[in-house]
User: Fold this.
Amino acid sequence: MRKFFDSNALWLSMLIGALGYQLFLPLKPTLPWLIFFMLFFTFCKVNPLDLRLHRWHWAVLITQLVLSFLTYTLVLYFTGNPILAQGLLMCFIMPTATAAPIIAGKMGGSIQNLTTFTLLSNFATAIIVPATFPLINPAADMTFLPAFLLILSRVAPLLLGPFFSAWLLRIGYNYYYRRQYLSAKRSYSASGPTAQRSNSPQGGQKEFVLPQSWAQTPFYLWVASIVVLTAVVTETTISNFKFQISNILILLVFSFLACLIQFALGKLIGYLMPAPSKGTDYQDVLINPAAAPTTMAEVSSITAGQAFGQKNTSLGVWMAQTYLSPLAALGAAAYIIWQNIFNSVQLFVVAHKK
Assistant:
């Protein structure tokens, strides 16, 4: 039963959220807290000292930006429809989802490398969107600094809050464990030869590791947040269902293609530019045992695929509604369906390989 739930949880949670959206809409205020604790437990698995940039981070970010504005320009040129072009732009320019490390970890990806890119991607978006969206939609009341601070205020607390909370927990744990070890060592030195043989302290400072019983907690919190997020997106879609059906269908089709393209490109970039397999940053055996039997090229392929393809759709919907148009928000809303279906297929395949 648990295996079935783990491999089908994403599409089931979307279905429940969409069908019962009126029941789950009152839970919208809980969404930031669900995301906060989901990230907190995820960041507990990562030593902040192991977060560092690799080649594929920059390659994915640059490719994402080029595709974003190239797609917008081509669609606008060939269709002459700025609203449709903005909707497709949102499918590419949205930053990496905060839950991406969770899904990557379940498939054997590198949680610490994807955590690094998630921070990079979201803060890059906070800079790029205020710098470019006024050119796309001059009618929007938007100047760089206020828009930058507004986007940052929505991104930073949900990323940095759990990050520093987990880091403080790690520091406190290591400090407490070290004091216990030094106290045991002093007692050992003061005891006699007979007592020394039975009371010798074992090992040095122990590395902080999230208890195994809590390992799945971030995933279940993410499933709960998808139910609420899908309910919110469903309500947004219904309230804005006044546009031409043809535009909506085109957005659905092209957001599907955008999803496939980004996952595929991310996997290719990660495979061609794997993170190094040596050094203190390679702790996949400790952080994620599923990644241990694979090569680092395969681990990086999984990680970069999620980094490129799994988007922060809630932020994307908000940015489109605030600075572009409601139809552009529907492009971001459609993307959440395709990315979670794609992730469900990936988790199903991984579950049946074990």
In short: Residues 313 and 332 are 6 Å apart (CA to CA). The radius of gyration is 23 Å.
